[in-house]
Automatic annotation (TrEMBL):
Organism: Geomonas diazotrophica
Domain of life of the source: Bacteria
Family matches, as Pfam families: HTH_3
UniProt keyword list: DNA-binding, Membrane, Transmembrane, Transmembrane helix
Transmembrane segments: 102-121
Protein's name in the database: Helix-turn-helix domain-containing protein
PROSITE patterns per record: EF_HAND_1 (PS00018), HTH_CROC1 (PS50943)
Domain HTH cro/C1-type: 23-78
Amino acid sequence: MVETNDKNEKVPLPSVAIDGTRIRNIRETKKLTQLYVANVVGVTTDTISRWENNRYPSIKRDNAQKLADALEVPLEEVLRQESSEPEEEPQLPPPVSKGARIAVFAVVAAALAGLLLFFLLRQPPLPPSASRWVPRFAAPGEVFPVQIKVARQATAPFGFILREKLPAGARLVNSLPPASSTDTELKWLVPNGGTPVTLSFTLQVPAGFNPGKDAALKGEIVIHNIGSSNRTEAVGGNGSIHIGSYHWADSNGDGRIDDDEIMPAYYICEEMKGLGLDWKTIEAIWSGKGYRWDAKRGYTVMK
């Protein structure tokens, strides 16, 4: 459990400059929607749009890291690249001999040939076929959502089997589409098709789960292309949930659900309606001043 003291002054979080154009290019290249990225980061789609249009010169480093995780790239890929060295006055090179010029030309030609060969042989890494979203936090004994999105296109249809290994002691509450389940694993069999698929399910870790620990999910997708052999890939995205005195919709763990957090929570609850998520409690916390959680009473809204 993370203790907070309202009397303590808040220390401003470090900010970093982001490159909105690169962020948009990465997202579109990976065929990710603004809604998906917003849900993973824990902000609204309007915020993602402002970031991509360079409306904000800088954002919190924590949000930048979550954005990079959502796009599945290193943090440096979403930061603005700036030169910190002052420009120097151009200087004329000293005169060189004809032999030296020939040697320089030979070195440059070899370097260019090497670069050309490198770019011809280099293959960009493929994005994962299946990517998981889980909230950053959950409380012992409380229900929290998980979604796995499988990217499929009409030009490259496939069927698949997806297996998801559950955290130790976790209980499946419900799933859509229905999954075959055991105490330790969920499985889906999805026939051939060319449209994206979202697998949604809700889990509940044991009420006696030790707060302060992380619960982990791990999965794999077996892709079947008609006329070719199967291939197996690990499910991408995040798979770690910190268990403590938090609501899953409280993405930054500050003891309240603010305007940036309520819309992603609403979208998740709408997409996963009927799977056991308690929207009324989320809305009550957002309308109040925050919440407290304990093992006996669950969530208490602060008026």
